[in-house]
Amino acid sequence: MLTTAIDIMTKRIAAILAENAPSILLYGSVPLDDFRPGWSDIDLMVLTRQAISPAQAAELVTLRQTLAAEHPENPFFRCFEGGMLCLEGFLSSQEDTVVYWGTSGQRVDTRYRCDSFSMLELCQHSRLLWGEDIRPQLPTPRREDLVAGVAAHLATIRRHAQKTSASLHSFGWLLDIARCLYTLRTGGIAAKTQAGQWALEQHLCPIPDALKATLSARQDPAAALDDPQLMALAGSLGPDIQRFADVLEAALRRNMIDLSSAAHGGF
Question: Of 90, 131, 186, 256, which is the most exposed, with the fewest CB atoms less than 10 Å away?
């Protein structure tokens, strides 16, 4: 049903934007072979040659709900997230008509911010679903962009993950930290499951039992939801997340020093 949902969504977006020459890219957990029902999103980026009209935006903004109502047997239409806007506006960061789908809802906006991690995924790991392949036109993030992106993630972790709730997404903080560490070490992007396993193999996590439990929940989210011990752990992960964030902060500091040294010719 996942493949069916992606196919139906792609064709409906392409039909709405037929006059705009859309390019539809799939990125995130699906092309990285790490999609987990009940946990993962289906990430789309839709970039057009012509600006999206108000009428098109009005139809697109509620398309997830429209297709979910048309196909009630398929649960995946609720999982789509991403942005739709003109390619020129995306590349220049100028104001444009933007349709945004997120976890908390959807809206029509005037700007779309793509962080360095998402941009690297779009450049290196996305799948072209429709239209012209515009990926060669996308700027690959520089090392300093990725370091800045990690710093932003760390600030979010410090601000919002001091305490956690008994939900699957509480485990996600540990995997986010592992992904950030992987990017700092390699300059690349890893799927969440791969990054968690890598962090264990590299002995980077000071609370390995919590990360092992996270990977167990990631492997079978439905079973994890029915496991009282796992859910209780999810609700008490705050201190463990912050200990792992200490490791990330130290790695980030080293990378910032290296960037500063390189900018000054090594002196």
Answer: 186
Alpha carbons 35 and 27: distance in angstroms, whole number: 11
Q: Tens digit of pLDDT for each residue in 134-184?
A: 999 999 999 999 999 999 999 999 999 999 999 999 999 999 999 999 999
68 by Cβ neighbours in 10 Å (0-12 / 13-18 / 19+) ranks as middle
Count of domains in the chain? Answer: 2
Question: Same domain, yes or no, for 90 and 127?
Answer: yes
* pLDDT tens per residue, range 18-76: 999 999 999 999 999 999 998 999 999 999 999 999 999 999 999 999 999 999 999 99
The phi, psi pair for 128, rounded to 5°, reads -75, 120
User: E-strand spans in the chain?
Assistant: 23-27, 42-48, 80-86, 98-102, 105-109, 127-130
Q: What is the pLDDT of residue 265?
A: 62
Dist. CA 84–CA 45, nearest whole Å: 6
Instruction: State whether 17 and 124 are in the same domain.
Output: yes
The last residue of one of the domains, among 116, 137, 158, is: 137
Structure tokens at 237: 């992960």
Nearest by Cα to 159 from 248, 256, 241: 241
Verify that 93 and 147 share a domain, yes or no.
Answer: no
Express each pLDDT in 192-215 by its tens digit.
999 999 999 999 999 999 999 999
Return the C-alpha torsion angle 9, 81, 18, 5, nearest 10.
-10
Shared domain for 24 and 122, answered yes or no, is yes
State the pTM of this model.
0.92
Backbone angles phi, psi at 107, to 5 degrees: -165, 160
Same domain, 116 and 147: no
Task: Indicate whether 124 and 165 sit together in one domain.
Answer: no
**Which DSSP letter does residue 49 get?**
S
